[in-house]
Amino acid sequence: MAATPMLPPNLGPGNANFDGNAAAAPPTPGTDMTGICFRDQLWLNTYPLDRNLVFDYFALSPFYDYTCNNEQLRMRSIHPLDTSHLSKMTGIEFMVSEIMEPHLFVMRKQKRDGPEKVTPMLTYYVLDGSIYQAPQLCNVFAARVGRALYHISKAFTTAASKLEKVGYVDPENEGVSLEPKAAKEAIDFKEVKRVDHILASLQRKLPPAPQPPPFPEGYAPPTTTEGEQAPEAEQADPKLPLVDPILDQGPSKRLKYA
Q: Where in the sequence does UniProt note compositional bias of the Pro residues kind (predicted)?
């Protein structure tokens, strides 16, 4: 069933341009209209918002372009979303890309250059009766990068303000006596206990150490202990007396002259 054609706002009855004078063309919607939304509660209370009437509701919003191919089909009493007619035309058109009745409808504005050649331009969505323009991907990336840079810069500023300046003397406060070193290096025992408590709780959560692997078959561990081996080592290798290589060489030998 074809939808009833709806005239643009400036072509309705009672308009001064409708009688005799040339009608002024409706303004073309801008590229970036993400800061506004449209909602007609009277229309929503009168008609159901479904896939057959969602385009008529979208045509009431400032996002609609009256120069599109869908408007030409509406003037010919043809459903504006009839793909059999839209595929034979070229120019700007609107298509419903996703539908989740009755809450979400996604409208895509695209430029058609042929039956199979279309170029997406903008995306709009109808969420619970309110129409919005989806932001472009480049704007989303720019906003996310700008927000990340702001937080990184703020983090560096905070870290720099808390770092202790080593070896720096303020010329204005050069004569002011510095705090004693003992006061600066005072230990906070509450903090130490808190850290010990955290480490102990983490240690309790860890699984116990695994048992060592068994000895291979045929292996016999030695029966002697270190205490038994120590006397034998002392008997086998008795300590030699310390001898000075220079002083303990015996009487010096002098040459005898004939």
A: 1-11, 207-216
Q: Is 43 helix (H, G, I), strand (E, B) or coil?
A: helix
Q: How far is CA 135 from the centre of its chain?
A: 17
Instruction: Please list the residues that pair with 131 across neighbouring strands.
Output: 38, 126
Strands 91-100 and 104-112, sheet pairing: antiparallel
Calpha distance 78→58 (Å, rounded): 17
Structure tokens at 85: 């007619």
Please state, in angstroms and rounded to a whole number, the distance separating the CA atoms of residues 151 and 174.
35
- Region of 124 on the Ramachandran plot (φ > 0 left; ψ -120 to 50 alpha; else beta): beta
Q: How far apart are CA 148 and CA 142, in angstroms?
A: 10
List, as own/partner pairs, every contact residues 248-256 make where C-beta atoms lie below 8 angstroms and the sequence separation is at least 24, other chains included. Answer: none
Quote the pTM value: 0.50
Distance CA(24)–CA(201), nearest Å, equals: 77
Using DSSP's 3-state secondary structure scheme, residue 63 falls into coil
Number of other CB atoms surrounding residue 43 within 10 Å: 14
Q: How far apart are the first and last CA of the chain?
A: 148
d(CA 91, CA 206): 67
Identify any residues that bridge with 94 across adjacent strands, giving them in sequence order: 109
Q: How far apart are CA 145 and CA 153, in angstroms?
A: 12
Residue 207, pLDDT score: 77
In Å, the largest CA–CA distance within the chain is: 158
